[in-house]
Amino acid sequence: MKPNTMNLERLIIQGGTPLCGNVAIYGAKNSALVLMAAAVLGKQDIIVLENTPRLADIEIMADVLRSLGAKVRFTEHHTLEIDPREINKTMAPYELVTKMRASFFVLGPLLARMGEARVSLPGGCAIGSRPVDIHLKGLEAMGATIEIEHGDVIAQADKLVGADIHLNFPSVGATENLMMAASLAEGTTRLYNAAREPEIIDLANFLKAMGAKIEGAGSDTIIIEGVKDLKQPVYYSVMPDRIEAGTFMIAAAITKGDVILERAPVHELESLSVKLREANVMIETIDHQTLRVQGRRPILATDVRTMPHPGFPTDMQAQFAAMMALAHGTSRITETVFENRFMYVDELQRMGANIRIEGNTATIVGQPRLSGAPVQATDLRAAAALVLAGLVADGETIVSNLFYLDRGYEAFEKRLAQLGARTCRISTSAQKSEAIGTY
Ligand code: EPZ
Q: What average pLDDT score do residues 291-308 get?
C-alpha cells in the first residue's frame, strides 16, 4: 500500500437501500493472525492455512514471518502456505510491529523456538494504551529474562520451564503468546484467568494439530504440557470471523433488510444475538453455520456492556452504537475492555446522532433518521460503524481513512453492494480520481 494513496481512499455511500440476499462469512482476522505467528514454532514441515482472509493485516504478518526467514505465499485466494523451516532470525522489524500490534504475537513462539527474541513494543493505538505487561510477566514466570532497550522487548531463555501463571486480566493476546511459548516449554504450564474467546480455541486446535498438548482452551484455565518440538505438517482451516458476521447482521438490521449469513460461526454469536433480539431484530438460526437476519420491525433501544468472552464483544460496540442511534428510546453502552473506544461518536454526531459520553458510558437517544455527511474513520471497528450508518442515512456519506476498514474487512463494500448497497470507492491520487465500484 502506498501511504499517500492509502490515506486518500474514500467510500461514498448512498443510504436508504434495504440489504437483501446471501453473504458468505470469511475467515477470522483475529484467528488467522495468531495462527500465522504460531507457525513460527514449526520446524519440520510446511503449514497450510485455508480460509485465510485477504486483509492488509495478514499481509503485514506475512512480511513479519518473511523477515524472520520463513517463506509465505498465497497458493489460492484464501489459502496461505507458510514454510517456517528456514526461520533463523530472532528480531521482528520495528516498522512492521508498529504498523500492526498483532505482530507482537511472534514474541512467545520466537522465544520458544530460538531461545531469544527481539520485538518492538507495539505502543498504543486509537482505542487505548495497549500495554503488554501480562505477556511479559508470564514469559518471566517461565524463566525468560526480559529487558526493554530502545523501545524493543529483548527476551532470552536457554530453556522455558512450565509455570502456574495468573493473568490479572483475561487478555486475548497474552493468553495466546503464553500458550504458544508454553507449547515448547519443559513441563506443565497452567494459565489461570485465561481469555475464553473462540480464537483461543482455534489456536489450541491448531497447536494440537502441530503436536502440542493443550487442555481447557475456551475455559478460564488452560493447561499446556510442553513437548520437545512441533513437527506435524498442518493443513488447517481458520474459523469464520464472528465480528465480520456480527457486522453484517447489524447491516441487515439497520437497513430493514433480509440477509442470510452463510459459513457463519452461529454458536460464537450468541451474546450478540441476544442483544439484537432485545432490540427487536429477527434472527433465525437455519443451521450451525447459517443465520437469517431481518430488520422488518422498529429497532428498540437496549443497554449493552462490553465484556471479555462470553460477554458482549468490544469489537462489536461501535457497530451496535450506530444501530442504537436510530432506535426507539434511549440506550446506554458501557465499554469495559478498552479505555478509549468511543472515537467514532463525534463522527456519528455529524450525521445527526444524539450521543453523550460520560466516562466509559455512551448514552444514545435514538433519532428517527441520520443524515449523510463526510466522516473520518479513527480505527477499524469505527470505520465499520460509519459505513453501517451511511447505509441507512439520508443522502450521501463519505467515509475517509478507508485503510482502517481494509485492515479488518475483505472487499467489504463489494459484498455490501452484492446485497444491494449503493457504494463507490474513490481513490484520489495526485494524477486522477477514479471511481471504483457501483452505485
Ligand atoms: C485482541 O486484542 C484483538 N486483536 C482485539 O481486536 C480485541 O478487541 C481484543 O483482543 C479484545 O477482545 C487481535 O486478536 C489481533 P487484550 P488484544 O490483550 O489481545 C489490557 C479488532 O478490532 N491489557 O485482550 O490486544 C488492554 O490494555 C481488535 O479486531 C493489559 O493491561 O486485547 C485492554 O484494555 C481491536 N496488559 C485489555 O487488556 C496486557 O499485557 C484487553 O486487551 C495485555 C492487555
A: 97
